[in-house]
Amino acid sequence: MRRFKNNSHLNSSNAPFVEELYAAYLKKPTSVSSEWQKYFQQLQSQDTEAPPDVDHQEIRDEFARINRDTRQPAAPLARMLSADAESKQIHVLQLINAYRFRGHQHAEFDPLHLNAKEHVPELELQHHSLSDLDLDMVFNTGSLMGPRQASLREILEILKQTYSGQIGVEYMHITDTEEKRWIQHRLESVCSTPKFSEAKQQRLLERVVAAGEFERYLHTRYVGQKRFSLEGAESLIPLMDELIQRAGGRHKVTEVVLGMAHRGRLNVLTNILGKAPNTLFMEFEGKVHSNGNGGSGDVKYHQGFSSDIQTESGIVHLALSFNPSHLEIIGPVVEGSTRARQNRRGDLSGSLVLPILVHGDAAFAGQGVVMETFQMSEARGYTTGGTVHIVVNNQIGFTTSNPLDARSTVYCTEVARMVQAPIFHVNGDDPEAVVFAAQLALDFRMRFQKDVVLDMVCYRRHGHSEADEPSATQPMMYKQIKAHPPVAQLYAESLVQKSGVDPHLVDQIKKEYREALEHGECVAPNIITGTFDKPYWVDWKPYLQANDFQQVDTSLSAEDVRRLMFKSCEVPEDISVHTQVSRIFKSRRQMAQGEIPMDWGFAETLAYASLLQSGFPVRISGQDCGRGTFFHRHAVVHDQKDGSAYIPLQFLSEEQAHFTIIDSLLSEEAVLAFEYGYSTAAPYSLVIWEAQFGDFANGAQVVIDQFISSGESKWGRLSGLVMFLPHGFDGQGPEHSSARLERYLQLCAEDNMQVIVPTVPAQIFHALRQQMLSNVRKPLVVMSPKSLLRHKYSVSALEDVCEGGFRAVIPEVDEIQAAQVNKVVLCSGKVYFDLLDARRERGINKVAIVRLERLYPFPQQELEQCLQHYPNAVDIVWCQEEPKNQGAWYYIQSLLLKMTKPNQTLQVTARPASASPAVGYYQKHIDQLHELINDALGLSEVQMVNTSNVKTSN
Fold this sequence. Notes:
By secondary structure, the protein is α/β, with parallel strands linked by helices.
């Protein structure tokens, strides 16, 4: 009997084990023992013989014991003692498992019933060798919540109600057993059917009525204007309300960062965040500037907002991020902002600051940045402790007529399975089911610190915008929508039937809500309007009032240089350092003593160390940024014995600020968006994104265009983000030469950002310190070097960091008689050293070379002062290594013309105009370089530089 109890799958404690064993067998038969393989094969072949090692008398005895222990009638159990009882029991467990896996495919979560349910054999009795004749037979329920034994009819009813009702759940793809069991318990304990109090039901009714009435009010007051109505998805308002109240109440969350695109945004702003209707109405009428900073502003359904909401356990600060029309790009921006806010609070687990992202179905399935954002969700440099994703599933995209044209998956949410996020599909016409799913989603996120997806399946009553006529392309869908009652009407009718609610209550709620709108009153509940203590609030006033690009003292004493650099090169003795890294650290100590000139890695590390010691946190991310793509940084030391990492900049002193450096995932778009979001919430931190090659920023162009360059003008959002974009024509081909300088210069206006091309180490030292020591918070775009990282001329002396600051213009460095100069060559970047080499080799003394280290804002005053030293110069030449139609020429041409005197001519020398950024053949690259150098210096054919003598660094 003891042997039977320990091994029989009829024992209730073994049932979950058998279920998982069988699931493993179905995936890979050889993953289970040969005995279980044989047994499961017998079940699949519908062999009714019991395994030979089973003692039928022991089975009868065990059932008798179960019968006594559970006080169940003996007759039903006795019926299980037939020869095929054991087989049927296993099949019942299979059926339970099948509903957990695939019950969602028969769920009733589509309010329009647009598609016929897919035939799923695994959900049928016959597939499991069961029939209607077995419905009254009692079985062990295994791990199914509820009674230990129940009839098949009862089991089937529980399964259908739990997994194929108004909620369909995908969670069996999760490998963590605890997570799966948690979801099972929450669903099966109430059969996915919430039971809310009358007060709760009335609040839900008020919220869906408010959502619908808001849209109808705007529809009549502002006929034909775009508002991206929430009609058809009104349950989003009680959903958001529940998330915020439960987050602040049960889970004691103190801040929620929200990102969403257009659909329903105005409704959420008004009914959740408490934006004053009067302000919104003025925006409809075009009477206000949205950001109040004199910028360009933006349309009303892109606007952000913040407010404070009272919950049961305290106040929750709610921040809705500004969002462009590029849909899902707001996701990683929200994650970055969330991470910064969590760091501000010391919230390492993400339990205090919660990110919520609201998606559209077509965008969720179609935008690659969604996948990138999921991929970041548990990466250590980017995790925010899980995000609640809400899909407002209108079942249609912008103009798509069929989901088959919008995706290749059954659901729009398939991408979430990549991080094993549970997915709750819920009928948007059932506010109670929606709120129940919201509770599950939030509780799961808070319990497991993982992403979770709530797919609210609904519809869009109007077209993509209210001016569209959707029936022209969607006749069948919109015929059904026109006849479909609004959510509030359906819910009110159900409450009248189920709870005896007064049928006139809805009219009263509508009347009161309309009156509040008419008076312009706040219509969102629980909004805090008074003042209160905000310990983690960032005071933006110093940054908003700062003078543009004010020069500050960025020098450092020689004593501080030595102390900080020696600490930055200090590694514990028990760490085995790579020999090349050891040599680099040794050289840096010599540089700190002034024994040898400093290189780029020294100056950059010194800038970080000095800022950290002054209390400014530093965050750097990008592909290979810990080491540096070109082996120059080595901020992370890897132990050669065990591979562990040590970061010296984290151990400068006990008082220092935090230093974070992360080798990012292979993403540009999501990672850059994350860092931008981080910078907008942490003006006190130096935030840097480094591209592996500057060209790779192409993959993040939407972030640069929609946020970095225009965020201040559109929304008044400040960002001090720094972008390192390795740039320089070293013969490495079209995709490893140009950071597309011309694109950034084209985006420059209204002092929106800085673009610099530093050529010596001291320049990056001063630029980075200037970025933080000044109160100006503008993006800084750095055309950072590649070959110059170790160029013999690209060095600085110790005194260059101990005095002075960033120089926008660097004048001639050689001793040339100014009166003899008849030509001034202006340039930026690496080409300067090629020009300098060629001029020195040929002994030319009538050509001066001037470097522009900052291209925007253009240093007109500094350049004019420099040119005044050469009164006899008749030729002004702009020299660039980029093709003529790229680089800085078209930007700088008009600026230089204004400075050119009547007796002077302005010329350009560059590579030939090209469709490609650079040539792919090395010899052609060299030939072009020598040609443009000779043109710039005005060498005749006799004086031409021998191409074999001109060196370029690669």
